[in-house]
Amino acid sequence: MTATMRTSPTRTGDNADATNAHPGERRIQAKDTATTDTVLPPRPTAPSDQQRRATGRLSRNDLLMMGGAALSALCTTLLLFGRLTSMSGALGFVVVGFLVYLVTYAVLVSLTEDRPAVIDRVMAVMLTSAALLAGVALFSVVVFTLWRGRKAIVKSNFFTQDMSRTGPLDPLSSGGITHAIVGTLIMITIALIITVPLSLACAVFLNETRGRAASLVRTVVTAMTALPSILAGLFIFATWILILGFERSGLAASIAVSIMMLPIIIRSADVVLRLVPGNLREASAALGAPQWRTVWHIVLPTARSGLTTAVILGVARGIGETAPVLLTAGFTSTMNLDPVTGPMVSLPLTAFELVRSPQPNLVARGFATAAVLMILVLLLFTVARVVGGRPAGRLSKRQSRAAMHRSSADLGRIDARHEAAGQPVARRPETRHPDEVPT
């Protein structure tokens, strides 16, 4: 179907004027007359029986095909493992069944859909299966650890006593891991004091500068992310203990742990700082702020949530290290609050030493220690989410009220200056609650 646009016919006087016009003008008028007709190409119409496929939910046909493919895969795998072949084993049964399910499901989808839709459905099944497998593995580890340590973790003395007066054959009502909990907190605190300023400064340097030095530092940081933890422990053991002559202590273990935490925080913080919009830096520079003030007041507060996540990732890496602590801090069953002198133990090292014991009670204490370590990491992630989980630029109610009070104070100071100079005072805007929507 074509659509034509035509102009109305010209009058007789206009034709006479066009006849008496200059030849160049007649050519222009003829060109204008020829270009007044516009012909649109035909627009193809979609067939009325074609329906849109919903991508956000499963339809009835999808559920039927998935159920039919699962039933067919189960029956085929049972035939392969019980009748037709000599294959056996639970793991092989699951793997073969999943492969047969994928093939059957792809064939069923191809009966009603085109090739891109078949690839999309099969990839969706594979990704969903991978996510379920990872979730099941994580859930099984958590449940297994809690189940093996259930007898020791329910005892109150497990959190209030150390192992200084407890022997291998003593019951679970005696002894605990207070010394390991305190030692872990002391080591991680010292490691954070060392790591956070260095890592944030290095991330800002990588993000704000361009040159060979930044490229070299980024390469070194990338290489350090793959550094084995035993090498960090050996390095601190050789330099801090053997060469400098210091004894094994919690401080030495904190330095070794900080080496493992440093590249993780730097890489994560560098990625987060790159996500800060460039127009914020440009606006700060347009107002005359120097680069250090822009970084301190604009870039870092904007990326606060991401930087907090980076620090927590480093803490999760450092809190689970065992080899550096074993080499640099030793092992003890008593409480030690001095990180400079004497051996100090952490939760991962305590769990490692207790699980190696042949005594059932010590093994139960070891699994309970691992469960406490998981709970501690969960609490750290929760605190990080509460502290830094708010999006950039979004203030809480308390922060909104504080900003409104600061704005009122600034307005009062400006009005006082205007009154002192004899200038008219600006009209004050209406004040309302920060969460109130203006009408």
Secondary structure layout plus pairing:
Blueprint: E1 3-5, H1 12-20, H2 23-34, E2 38-40, H3 60-84, H4 90-110, H5 115-148, H6 150-153, H7 178-208, H8 212-224, H9 229-243, H10 250-274, H11 278-286, H12 291-302, H13 304-319, H14 323-328, H15 347-355, H16 360-388, H17 397-420
Antiparallel strand pairs: 1-2
Pfam families: BPD_transp_1
Main location: membrane
Subcellular location: Cell membrane
Folded structure, characterized:
Among the domains are: 60-148, no CATH class; 178-388, MetI-like (MetI-like fold), CATH 1.10.3720.10. It has 17 helices and two strands. Helix 3 packs across helix 4 (90-110), helix 10 (250-274) runs antiparallel to helix 13 and helix 13 runs antiparallel to helix 16 (360-388). The two termini are 50 Å apart. It is mainly α. Strands 1-2 form a two-stranded antiparallel ribbon.
Integer average pLDDT: 81
Class by SSE composition: mainly alpha
Sheet with most strands: 2 strands, antiparallel
Considering the protein shown, what is the CATH homologous superfamily of the domain at 178-388?
MetI-like
First-to-last CA distance:
50 Å
Can you give the helix content as a percent range? 55-70%
Q: Helix and strand succession? A: EHHEHHHHHHHHHHHHHHH
The overall strand count is: 2
Which architecture of the domain at 178-388 does the CATH hierarchy give at level 2? Answer: Orthogonal Bundle
Which CATH top level class of the domain at 178-388 fits? Mainly Alpha
**Secondary structure tally, helices:** 17
CATH topology of the domain at 178-388: MetI-like fold
- Determine the strand fraction and express it as a percent band: under 5%
Radius of gyration over all CA atoms, rounded: 36 Å
Q: Could you list the spans in which at least 5 consecutive residues all have pLDDT below 50?
A: 1-19, 30-35
